[in-house]
Amino acid sequence: MNCKQIILLFTLQITIISLLQSANSQEQIDFAGGVCDESENVSTTSKYHNNIISLLDNFLNQSSHYKFFNASSGTGGDLVNGLYVCRPDVSLDTCHSCLEAAVDTFNQYCFGVKEIFIWYQECMLRYSNHTIFAILETKPWNSGHSNLNVSRPDIFPTILNKTLGSIIAKASMPNNEDRFAYDNTTFTAFEGLYGMAWCTPDITPSNCKRCLDTAFSRFSKCCNNALAQRASVHLPSCILKYDTAPFIFGYSPPQLAPSPSPSPSSSPLPSLSPLSSPSPSPS
Ligand SMILES: *[C@@H]1O[C@H](CO)[C@@H](O)[C@H](O)[C@H]1NC(C)=O
Ligand SMILES: *[C@@H]1O[C@H](CO)[C@@H](O)[C@H](O)[C@H]1NC(C)=O
Ligand SMILES: *[C@@H]1O[C@H](CO)[C@@H](O)[C@H](O)[C@H]1NC(C)=O
Ligand SMILES: *[C@@H]1O[C@H](CO)[C@@H](O)[C@H](O)[C@H]1NC(C)=O
Ligand SMILES: *[C@@H]1O[C@H](CO)[C@@H](O)[C@H](O)[C@H]1NC(C)=O
Ligand SMILES: *[C@@H]1O[C@H](CO)[C@@H](O)[C@H](O)[C@H]1NC(C)=O
Ligand SMILES: *[C@@H]1O[C@H](CO)[C@@H](O)[C@H](O)[C@H]1NC(C)=O
User: Fold this and answer.
1) Residue 83 CA, ligand 3 centroid: distance in Å
2) Which of 3, 10, 152, 212 supports an S-S bond with 168, CB 3.0-4.6 Å?
3) Smallest Cα–Cα separation from 36: which of 127, 104, 167, 150?
4) How much is the mean pLDDT over the chain?
5) 271 CA to middle of ligand 7, Å?
6) Is ligand 6 within 6 A of the CB of residue 121?
7) Residue 41: CB partners within 8 Å, gap ≥ 6?
8) Could you tell me which residue, 137 or 22, shows the higher pLDDT?
9) What residues contact residue 4 under an 8 Å CB cut-off, 6+ apart?
10) How far apart are CA 252 and CA 256, in angstroms?
11) Has this prediction a pTM greater than 0.90?
12) How far is Cα 43 from Cα 283, in angstroms, rounded to an integer?
């Protein structure tokens, strides 16, 4: 089985598991994707593995109090670094439930794996043997999308470009410490276009923009050439998502004070180019 198959299988299985999970809990916790590189296993009796377990225990505890947390466990060659982040608009209860779901996912599918990336709609969790805090990481990545296409593929690319471009700019404003933006525009008389841009808050605004621009460029490689009605791209440092229907409710953007210096927005969005190979898998 190659890496791509493992990831795909993992994604399908988890979707079912997380549907079962969310049926049992009051809040909706939605699985978005995961990458566990099983070519790099560690023994479950190793110190490194024990450090993973105590790191995740710690995260479960912290997620009742903090929406973002980074920590390491162990020393030397057994050191594991990790972080989680919950979406800024969710409650701490939801944050904790999301971490529980993510740790369940780890237990079921990533036990004994050296480095993992798990994305939910409400939280992200990752750990690694190398340093991850404050470092922009755009690989590996994966994506999800609806099989249905938008009603106006002729005008959609331009609207998507403009709308996500503005949402990406909002999420990467220096004074937006959440590194998060959710916004909408009208698309046709019947459809809206809702977008979310979300970076882990440890990276700088300019790295956040780089991550989201990279995510944007991935849409054309994964998601019916960026014509799907709903699509999301997940990178270690950010998630970018759009839908023609609303998907976040009750979010009110923080009132941001004007930024002291205008954010550097000179680099244009990568343009949507036709896909050459329809591969949704990380490289
Ligand atoms: C890693 O562990 C998984 C199960 O946890 C197993 O399916 C996979 O084959 C292992 N990979 C290697 C390279 O041993
Ligand atoms: C998490 O909290 C529980 C209960 O407060 C405690 O027993 C446990 O030791 C804590 N674990 C960690 C890793 O802090
Ligand atoms: C966790 O974050 C702090 C900054 O808040 C940083 O100084 C520290 O190095 C980080 N720890 C790890 C293990 O990444
Ligand atoms: C992390 O693990 C990889 C793969 O086993 C190894 O090549 C790398 O040197 C390790 N990095 C650190 C900082 O230990
Ligand atoms: C965005 O959505 C809100 C709530 O659904 C709505 O009130 C608003 O008019 C929408 N804005 C645009 C530009 O469509
Ligand atoms: C959606 O658009 C893609 C890319 O243009 C196309 O390959 C696919 O067949 C379309 N799907 C449907 C259901 O129309
Ligand atoms: C997207 O917008 C950028 C400028 O922000 C432009 O360079 C690019 O050509 C646009 N792409 C499409 C498909 O409209």
Assistant:
1) 9
2) 212
3) 127
4) 84
5) 5
6) no
7) 112, 113, 114
8) 137
9) 279, 281
10) 12
11) no
12) 25
